[in-house]
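User: Structure tokens for this complex, please. No commentary.
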Amino acid sequence: MDKSHKEWQKEISNGVSELKVDQRLDLKGIPCPLNFVKTKLKLEGMEAGEILEVVLDDGEPIVNVTASVKEESHQILKVEKICQHWKLIIKKV
Amino acid sequence: MQKRSYTDAQFQELRTGGIIKQRQKDYFILRTRIPGGHLKADILKKYSLIAKKYGRDYVHISTRQGIEIPWIHIKDIQKVLNDLKKLGILRGACGSRSRNLIACPGASVCRFGFVDTEKLAKKLDKVAFGKDVPKKFKVAITGCPNSCAKPQENDLGFQAQGEPEVDLSKCIGCTLCAKVCEKICRRGKREPAIITDENKRPIYRKEHCFFEGDCIRVCPVSAWKVKKAGFAVYIGGKVGRFPKLGIKIADFVNEKEIPRIIKNTISSYNRIAEKEERFGEALERQDLEAIKKEIL
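Assistant:
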């Protein structure tokens, strides 16, 4: 686990304490549509019912990835702004 | 083979039926039409047969969702027309006739579309295509305000639009709807149609809405839905040497009204325009309110 990953884990730990997160993905600085591709691939490797937490940039990334994940029929549990980034909590269907 | 000769009047007749004289002697372009741009893959193969048999092994894709086959020799015109009929390829129009009705892919596949415009275009071909008019008449139908089929550049254009509504019981307070709305409204120089209250719940202000559906697409929990879909209607658009955008004369027109609106607009055009004049040019001399009544 790299440093930046640990950093944002700390950053967001307060907001989602009630949810058990199975996998995490830090997509800060990753542009569209690569951020969605990475999210999709991650979800494909997970079991149904598991929870993925994704951190995305503000602007296009949070808007596009949210819409695309929904279109893939996964359940979005939470969308939250944390400083300059967004956190998306997804339940794999 | 004996060469059939055509009179000027016959050439004109061919022209309105989509047979266009090339700059090269004795050669013609065969214009076909594909209503809404939706073509079965089997028919596409048949275009290839025609282009190989009568043309020069290539086609031209027109800007009006038609396929043109150049290099048809004058002696082959009758034969090629018979073949088209047998193969199920539709002829296009040139000269003083209404043209192929164009459409974007629409809601069948496009994530932005409110309406299945391709399917609609197929149904509307009968009322929109091949009617006698003073100059030409083009109809476009597009599935959302992105306007990919350019309804504003056609003599008559239909642009689908959707009024959103929110179910607050589903809302998780993410505020993404307000975020995308603010962005689109800023570009359109309007106040945002969605603002949020102190609990981050959206408040919808219809009077500022562009009805493009960004809030519906982005909502992670599908709290936003289409309440009502319909069409904005544009008239008098054209490009050419003297371009002008169409004028919007209605919002949220029901799909069922479209055939009637097309018929009315064509008859209005025939009534007000001089020969060789486009609808938009003739409209400049008219009282727009009276024309609206006539069309809608």
